[in-house]
Specification:
By secondary structure, this protein is an alpha/beta fold. The chain has helices at residues 2-17, 28-40, 105-117, 119-122, 144-154, 201-221, 268-289, 312-322, 337-342, 367-384; strands spanning 45-49, 56-62, 70-75, 94-96, 99-101, 129-134, 160-163, 172-175, 177-186, 235-243, 253-262, 294-303, 329-331, 347-349, 364-366.
């Protein structure tokens, strides 16, 4: 039965990889293809679009419309290939030495392809499978919340949610949350020899970035040694920065973006409270000197963590399907699992491939992992029959 599923899943994977769904792009071509595929199997689906309708989530119920179903969720977007040294076309599946190369094979179109290939198996189940495919996971888990809210309101209550991020088919019961902020500093331009006549946005930005570096060091120094996460503490990194126009001009504008990733027992707002107080004080001080100057901080995304304590029911069910008897794990990356858990669904992460291959040039999903994922889908269909 599994052997029959794999070729169909491979064909679907080839199609999905062919859609360049880098987060900066629309995903509507992929969504339209999935809609049509589901329609061919007699399955209706529902779009949940973003504000300008340029992107969409998609969810669908396969099988009986009743309580106790299983959510299979994955994100349709992928990270960019810009500047990476690929040995093959990243938008074509290229099998080399038992590895399926292509952008998104591992993270996480492989899981989506397997779930879609299993639709004919799920259709006859006594309990349903709810497919849920999101957008913009890679830039802060922005798309899924609206879909999750609608699913929670409109579907018969599912038993649990399985988020198919790459875990080598191991059961993951916890992940860190992520919050991303942009800081913008507006100064007052002047000749760099006349510092008393201006205010350098770059100098203020550097001061604030130094504060974040010290905050990051403090998180490391105060790590909980009993934490199961690696690293065991919240992490804070500055990912982007820009500012200034020329060496001899006091910069008018500077900007940087940072992310903070917290375990379930750490409140990101509490961590950032001193930094935000510093920004408010600096903003007031700068405006007194130059009314147009100042500092603003804007939260760009905020995805909650997933706590192991809320995953027991889902963990036991998935372990019966995978045969995984090892200790449950946690991961330091953020995912949509915390959003499903926050909405009241028992949730775990489990999917084919390794996160170590995600986001890399020549990203790949091992054929062996793809086949294990197919085994999982067959066993799931049998469990719901």
């Amino acid at each position: 039965m599994t052997n029959a599923l794999v070729p169909a899943a491979r064909d679907i994977l080839t199609t999905l990889i062919g859609f360049d769904t880098t987060s900066r792009n629309s995903n509507l071509e992929l969504i339209a293809w999935v809609e049509a595929y589901l329609g061919e199997h007699g399955v209706a689906s529902t779009r949940v679009v973003n504000e300008d309708a340029s992107k969409a989530n998609l969810y669908a119920t396969v099988g009986a419309m009743c309580e106790g179903g299983i959510i299979l969720s994955g994100h349709s977007d992928v990270v960019p290939v810009d500047g990476q040294d690929w040995q093959s076309d990243p938008w074509t599946v290229d099998e080399r030495n038992g590895l399926l190369h292509g952008r998104g094979t591992c993270d996480m179109k492989g899981f989506i392809a397997l779930a879609l290939a299993a639709v004919p198996l799920f259709k006859n189940g006594a309990k349903p499978v709810h497919l849920a495919f999101s957008y913009d996971e890679e830039i802060g888990c922005l798309g899924a919340p609206a879909m999750i809210e609608e699913m929670a309101a409109k579907l018969p209550k599912p038993a649990l949610a399985i988020i198919g991020e790459p875990t080598m088919m191991k059961v993951i019961t916890g992940h860190k949350g992520i919050t991303v902020h942009e800081v913008e500093v507006l100064g007052h331009e002047a000749h760099s020899s006349l510092t008393h006549l201006g205010l350098s946005a770059n100098m203020v930005a550097v001061e604030l970035m130094h504060d974040l570096a010290e905050l990051s060091r403090g998180l490391w120094e105060n790590a909980d040694p009993a934490s199961p996460f690696i690293p065991p503490h919240a992490t804070l990194t500055i990912g982007k920065m820009a500012g200034g126009t020329a060496p001899n001009i006091l910069a008018r504008r500077a900007q940087f973006v940072f992310d903070l990733r917290c375990p379930p027992d750490v409140d990101p707002e509490a961590v950032l409270a001193p930094f935000k107080a510093k920004i408010a004080a600096l903003d007031n001080e700068m405006k007194q000197a130059f009314p147009e100057a100042g500092v603003t901080i804007t939260r760009m995304s905020n995805a909650p963590p997933m706590a192991p304590s809320g995953s027991r029911e889902a963990e036991d069910f998935v372990r019966r399907l995978t045969g995984d008897n090892g200790p449950s794990g946690v991961v330091s990356y953020a995912a949509e699992a915390g959003q499903f858990q926050q909405a009241g669904f028992a949730t775990v992460i489990c999917g084919p491939g390794s996160i170590e291959q995600a986001h890399q040039p020549n990203e790949y999903l091992a054929v062996e992992q793809f086949e294990r994922g197919a085994d999982f889908m067959v066993r799931l269909a049998e469990a719901l029959a």
